[in-house]
Amino acid sequence: MAANGTTTTQPNGNSPPPTEGPPIETPFLIVGAGPAGSALACFLASHGLTGIMLSTAPGTAKEPRAHITNPAALECLRDIGLEQEVLGVATPQSHMEHTRWCHDMAGVEYARIHSWGNQPHRRGEYDAASPCRHVDVPQTLLEPILVKHAIVKGWKMRFDTTFVKFERDAPDGPITSTITDNITGQTYRIRSKYLFGCDGARSNIIRQLDIPLIKEPGQGLAINILVEADLEKYMKYRTGNLHWIMQPEIEHPPWGWVCINRMVKSWH
């Protein structure tokens, strides 16, 4: 509350969180608003359950990141009425028929195989197993759908917010989480009945619970590069979801001998 009696708000649309006083009360607190956290909020909302969702990011994903959504996952989104909205932004099925190996995007094609359930001799198996198909929908397009749906159904969303730690006085008692607003630097508390860690491998919740994350050595190195280019005129007969580019006549470092060109939107 400002001195003149008006209420100020943060850039993320919330009133400034308190630094003192009683904790904010909510039945459910979800830490992480990626596909896991935001989908969880949507599923809980489908049962009339709401709470607060936090994310350290300033908004939804700005890079494509994960993109293949399998039929089982799409069935779950279908159950809560989101299938058609997801299909509306997904890559058309006609561009997911093949995985290719080639010298370059416009050059010699070495080989291709059917992929993502498009093998002619297996189509019946996939059709019998699920009413849904694999779809390609990157996180930049999926996350806004999920977060918006959760908010419309009653969830509170706080971006630019860091989960610090949690405390619990009794095994069956409420969980008190310490939260920091990244914009104002203010720290406050949220008390919830349930706390969900959906914030990935760097999760403070996982670290505090001392849950081991096993990483095998020698998994290799991957470098992601986001390129914007119009490939429409080259791709009429080169449709595919993943394009393995291999140029054996050129010497490459051991970690960079192959490039996978992945379409984000066809063919842009």
In the sheet with the most strands, the strands line up as: 7-2-1-10-9-8
Q: Which series of helices and strands comes N to C?
A: EHEEHHEEHEHEEEEHEE
**Helicity range:** 10-25%
**Biggest sheet, in brief?**
6 strands, mixed
The level 1 CATH classification of the domain at 24-67 and 138-209 is Alpha Beta
Tally of DSSP helical segments? 6
Shape: globular
CATH topology of the domain at 24-67 and 138-209: FAD/NAD(P)-binding domain
CATH superfamily of the domain at 24-67 and 138-209: FAD/NAD(P)-binding domain
Strand content: 15-25%
Kindly report the average pLDDT value. 88
First-to-last CA distance: 47 Å
Low-confidence stretches: 1-13
**Class by SSE composition:** alpha/beta
> What CATH architecture label of the domain at 24-67 and 138-209 applies?
3-Layer(bba) Sandwich
